[in-house]
Amino acid sequence: MNDRAAMLREIAEEVAYTRAEIGKDALDAQVMAAIAKVPREEFVPAPGRLYAFVNGPLPIGHGQTISQPYIVALMTDLVEPRPDSVILEVGTGSGYQAAVLAEIVRQVYSIEIIPALAASATEVLDRLGYANVLVRHADGYQGWAEHAPFDGILVTAAAPHIPPPLIEQLKPGGRLVIPVGLPGRVQQLQVVEKRVDGTTRIRDVLRVAFVPLTGICEAERV
Predict the structure, then answer these.
(1) Rounded to whole angstroms, how far apart are CA atoms 22 and 185?
(2) In which residue ranges of the chain is pLDDT below 50?
(3) In this structure, are residues 203 and 191 in contact, taking their beta carbons and an 8 Å threshold?
(4) Which of these is catalytic: 67, 85, 94, 110?
(5) Strand 133-137 to strand 107-112: parallel, antiparallel, or no bridges (unpaired)?
(6) Angular region, 171: left φ>0, alpha ψ -120 to 50, beta rest
(7) Segments of 18-149 assigned E as strands
(8) Do residues 11 and 32 lie in contact, with contact meaning Cβ atoms separated by under 8 Å?
(9) Three-state DSSP class for 40?
(10) Under a CB-based contact definition with an 8 Å cutoff, are residues 92 and 98 in contact?
(11) Between the CA of residue 157 and those of 3, 36, 50, 99, 106, what are the distances in Å?
(12) How many domains does the chain divide into?
């Protein structure tokens, strides 16, 4: 079994292990196809490429990580992407999560607060031909109002609370997937569903451990 196949098997095993929490026995087939297709090794800095298909997070510099493949697959599944979807990602990081989304949806808008990561992710995504991903260097807490509303929003860093601008920029019927909690404490991966009347339903899915969302959110923790 090659490294990519082993990674896919381990994701499936972890889904089975956490099925009581996540409420499903398997992830959507289009999500797993995207995970299988995206070359994860291209999004990992050279020293860590030997471990690119290990089912765990890896450092990408600047105190940030590329998320565990299982978590990337789960969050992609939870946002319920469709071929016509326009998705906002907060926290581009390496660009890997954006690439997985781009295999499924029409357009991905991705925001990264660290300039060097925004630049490197853009270079890799462009080189690999992901023309339907646009990366912006900005504070993701504020979202990306000029392209709103979004069919789904996915946040790849833990916030102390759900940012109100992201709720405002979510379409009725859309989903926001976000880890909520403080560093070193319990974090919950949450799904926020926006109803037609603008109210929301929030569901805890799984305990997780993410790097903190910086910018305004970081200042609010002080």
Answers:
(1) 20
(2) 219, 221-222
(3) yes
(4) 67
(5) parallel
(6) beta
(7) 58-61, 64-66, 86-90, 107-112, 133-137
(8) yes
(9) helix
(10) yes
(11) 27, 23, 25, 17, 23
(12) 1
Could you report the per-residue pLDDT of 139-152, keeping only the tens digit for each? 999 999 999 999 99
Catalogue the long-range contacts made by 163-167 (C-beta closer than 8 Å, 24 or more residues apart): 163/216, 163/217, 165/141, 166/88, 166/90, 166/141, 167/192, 167/194, 167/200
pLDDT value of position 215: 73
Q: Which of 52, 66, 183, 56 is nearest to 117 (CA)?
A: 66
Question: Is 85 a known active-site residue?
Answer: no
In which domain, by residue range, is 33 found?
3-221
Q: Is 186:180 a contact under the CB 8 Å cutoff?
A: no
Task: Note the pLDDT of residue 15.
Answer: 97
For the chain, give me the number of helices (H) and strands (E)? Answer: 8, 9
pLDDT at 107: 98
- Residue 222 is predicted with a pLDDT of 42
pLDDT at 218: 56
**CATH number, residue 196:** 3.40.50.150
Question: Cα(172)–Cα(157) distance, rounded to whole angstroms?
Answer: 23
Helix (H) or strand (E) holding 174: strand 170-180
| Structural contact between residues 208 and 180, judged by C-beta atoms closer than 8 angstroms | no
17 to 14, 22, 25, 80, 208: CA distances (angstroms): 5, 10, 9, 21, 15
